[in-house]
Structures are given as structure tokens and as C-alpha cells.
Design goal:
12 helices, alpha/beta, about 280 residues, binds calcium ion, 9 strands, 8-stranded mixed barrel, binds ligand C2E, EAL domain-containing protein
Length: about 280
């Protein structure tokens, strides 16, 4: 796979990794057929008010024998095997279905944010694919945000950039996910259709320990203001981090301090209670 002249020494660990890979791949196919994936939802809030702004949809897999398996383990396998296309179709539809239910229950100012894999960007005609899901479910585009990692942004084709522009014109928000962890140049921000930067939790966890990270975050916040972009900081776990990020000019936050990812039933209950009180 890596080309001619490349030799790999076999080790027993490789064998067990391969077995795990094929096992999980097979089990993911079963899980898709038996509708065993679920979505969790984590709020992204504005630090100024208490109004909930967005919910990020995060896929969950509870395996009957293995228990819960982390997305960081199964998403890369799904991407490598292209099963992410089928899984990603389900995720987009399910996220839109859930958002439509919340919309109809009165949460019409909220957006659902869906993670897209680079593989989906390559193999799906993005505009048609996303609009078909929205139309089928009856969700307005203004209720959707799409998260694309910085590393996938780097090798977008011109055609995909056009499609992203068309989606933005419909009212969908585009976010760069894991911002700061890739090796993109700043011209990305000048040339690509982007509305939101999501600063990776790595930066947040370092910010209270290392003043350089602190300054990088402040620079991203300043730059975003100039470019009219919104910034979300993810992975906020304690008050110290929250206060620091606020002081650096970060407005949107996401993390365990505010809420862990939750089931749709839990989110629905909470929102209903807030609207009653
Ligand atoms: P991500 O998109 O950067 O998502 C944020 C991750 O950070 C989530 O992990 C979330 O549960 C976790 N998180 C949120 N707040 C905190 C916090 O305060 N502290 C810590 N330590 N972690 C926090 P999760 O759900 O395990 O997902 C991991 C990664 O898997 C995601 O990173 C994303 O790259 C991928 N992923 C998850 N769901 C999907 C999906 O539906 N589609 C695709 N393509 N990828 C997904
Ligand atoms: Ca994300
Ligand atoms: Ca991240």
C-alpha cells in the first residue's frame, strides 16, 4: 500500500491491530444495519447570555459485547474503509431529524452542528447531498452548521469550495474544526468559505499553564474580530479556563464545565423546563 521498496517487519502487535480493525469494521456494518448508532448532543453557548446557541452532534456506539467504543477509535476505521459515507449519511439525517423535532418544539433559534469527514467531502456532491437531507426532513438550512477539520480544509478541491459557498448562500454556517492543530496557512481564512473557528481543546488545556498558548488564543480572537468570524473554544473543563478565555475575548464556549454530550431526551427535557420557568 505504501509503495514499492517499502518493507515492514511483521510484529504480533500488528496482527492484533489488524484483527481489531477487521472486527470493528464488520461490527460497524452490523451496527448500521441494526440501527445501533446514536447521537449525543453538546451545547455551545454564548458567555454573555445564557441562551443556548448551537448543539454539536457527536456519534456514539454502544456495542453489545464491548460496551461503548470511542469515536476516536472507530471513525478513523470508518474513514479508511469508506464506511464513513454510509455512517455519515445516517449521522446527517439523524441530526437533522432531531433538530427538526426541537425546531417544531420551539427551539427555532438553535442550530445543529454536524461533523463532516474529509472522505465525505471527496465522495459526496456536498450541496446536493446536504440539501436533499434538509428537504427530505423539512429542516431550514438556517438550522444547520457543518464542522470541517482544518486538515480536510487544506486539500479541498475548487469544486468542493464552490459547493460550500452555495451551502453558505442557503444560510448554512461553516466551521473550521480543530483550528490550530493542522498546518494550514492564514490565507485559508481569506480565501475559503468559513464563518466559525473552533479552537481545539488542546489550546484550552494549555492556556492556563503556558502563556504562549494564551497569547495565541488572544491573537485568534483578535484576528477573528477583524475578519468577522465567530470563535468557539472547545474543551472547557473548569472555571479558571472559562474566566481566562473570557478575558481573551472568546465569546462561544463548549465543554464539560457547561455540559457533557447528552442524549436527545435529556436536552429536550432541559430546554422544555427552561422555556416554562
Ligand atoms: P471533535 O469534533 O473535536 O469533538 C470534540 C470532542 O471533545 C468530543 O469527543 C467531545 O465529547 C469532547 N469534549 C467536549 N467537551 C470536552 C471537555 O470539556 N473536555 C474533554 N476532555 N473533552 C471534551 P468525542 O465525542 O469522543 O469525539 C471525538 C472526535 O471524533 C471528534 O472530535 C470528531 O473528530 C470525531 N467525531 C465524533 N462524532 C463524529 C461524527 O458524527 N462524525 C464525524 N465525522 N466525526 C465525529
Ligand atoms: Ca467537532
Ligand atoms: Ca477538537
Amino acid at each position: 500500500k505504501e509503495g514499492r521498496g517499502i518493507y515492514r517487519i511483521y510484529s504480533p502487535e500488528m496482527g492484533s491491530n489488524m484483527r481489531r480493525y477487521h472486527y470493528l469494521l464488520e461490527e460497524m456494518r452490523v451496527a448500521l444495519d441494526t440501527n445501533s448508532f446514536t447521537l449525543s448532543f453538546q451545547p455551545i453557548i454564548n458567555v454573555d447570555g445564557s441562551a443556548i446557541s448551537y448543539f454539536e452532534a457527536l456519534v456514539r456506539w454502544h456495542h453489545p459485547a464491548e460496551g461503548s467504543i470511542a469515536p476516536s477509535e472507530f471513525i478513523p476505521i470508518a474513514e479508511d474503509s469508506n464506511l464513513i459515507l454510509k455512517l455519515g449519511d445516517w449521522i446527517l439525517d439523524e441530526a437533522c431529524r432531531q433538530m427538526a423535532a426541537w425546531y417544531n418544539a420551539g427551539m427555532s433559534k438553535t442550530r445543529i452542528s454536524v461533523n463532516l469527514s474529509g472522505v465525505q467531502l471527496k465522495h459526496r456532491s456536498l450541496y446536493q447531498w446536504v440539501m436533499a437531507s434538509l428537504n427530505k426532513i423539512g429542516l431550514p438550512p438556517s438550522s444547520l452548521m457543518l464542522e470541517i477539520t482544518e486538515s480536510s480544509f487544506i486539500d479541498l478541491s475548487d469544486n468542493t469550495v464552490d459547493e460550500l459557498n452555495k451551502l453558505r448562500n442557503e444560510g448554512i454556517i461553516i466551521a473550521i474544526d480543530d483550528f490550530g492543530t493542522g498546518f494550514s496557512s492564514l490565507s485559508l481564512l481569506a480565501n475559503l468559505p468559513v464563518d466559525v473557528l473552533k479552537i481545539d481543546k488542546l489550546f484550552v488545556s494549555q492556556a492556563t499553564k503556558n502563556t504562549k498558548y494564551n497569547k495565541i488564543i488572544q491573537s485568534i480572537a483578535d484576528l477573528s474580530k477583524q475578519l468577522d468570524l465567530k470563535v468557539v473554544a472547545e474543551g472547557i473543563e473548569d472555571i479558571e479556563q472559562l474566566e481566562l478565555l473570557k478575558s481573551l475575548g472568546i465569546v462561544y464556549i463548549q465543554g464539560y464545565l457547561i455540559s457533557r454530550p447528552q442524549t436527545s431526551a435529556h436536552v429536550g427535557d432541559k430546554v422544555l423546563k427552561q422555556s416554562v420557568s
